[in-house]
Amino acid sequence: MARISKVGHVVLGVRDPQKSIKFYTEALGMETVNVLELDGMKMAFLSFGERDHDIAVIQVPDDQPVGSSGLSHTALEIEGGEEQLKELYQRLKEYGAKVEFTADHVLTKSVYFFDPDGNRLEIFSQEMGQRQAKQYLHDARGVGDVMRPLELESVQAD
Q1: Could you tell me which residues are beta bridge partners of residue 75?
Q2: Nearest CA to 22 among 38, 54, 41, 44?
């Protein structure tokens, strides 16, 4: 039976990514792995050293609340790979959870969904070792390098 093993990372919505990067690197001792931009919105990936990212910050538009918009979420790492992710994806759908989208981030494969109160969560399978994932994220040049389609629906044969 597929199961979640731990909290993998947190993505926080912020107004000023540069201010947040400075805070997390200077006050908390994190390193900036990469800063990417999508449609004028910045996102930064920060690490305590071993993982590709422990915290990411994403700019939230001024007209949206910080706590619930953009890609703010808590990520839960699962045991296993894509097959276990598919199993949990089906379980979420059977439970009636609102699945927002699925994504192949190359270093992980993910399902984004909401809990009953509207909190965004992600379950993911780690597809690369941490050292390789950190280097991959460091070398990414655009969001397209870390955000690709992922199909988890089973295709039924006639």
Answers
A1: 9, 122
A2: 44
User: What three-state secondary structure class fits 17?
Assistant: helix
Q: Is 33 helix (H, G, I), strand (E, B) or coil?
A: strand
Other Cβ atoms within 10 Å of 48 Cβ, number: 13
- Whole-Å CA distances, 37 to 6, 25, 41: 28, 19, 5
Indicate the pTM of the whole model. Answer: 0.71
pLDDT tens figures, 21-48 = 998 999 888 999 999 997 787 999 999 9
Contacts of 98 (CB under 8 A, 6+ apart): 113, 114
What lies within 8 Å, CB to CB, of 52 at 6+ separation is 33, 45, 107, 128, 130, 133, 134, 136, 137
Asked if residues 60 and 13 have their Cβ atoms less than 8 Å apart, the reply is: yes
* Cα–Cα dist 13/79, whole Å: 27
Q: If DSSP codes are grouped into helix, strand and coil, which group holds residue 41?
A: strand
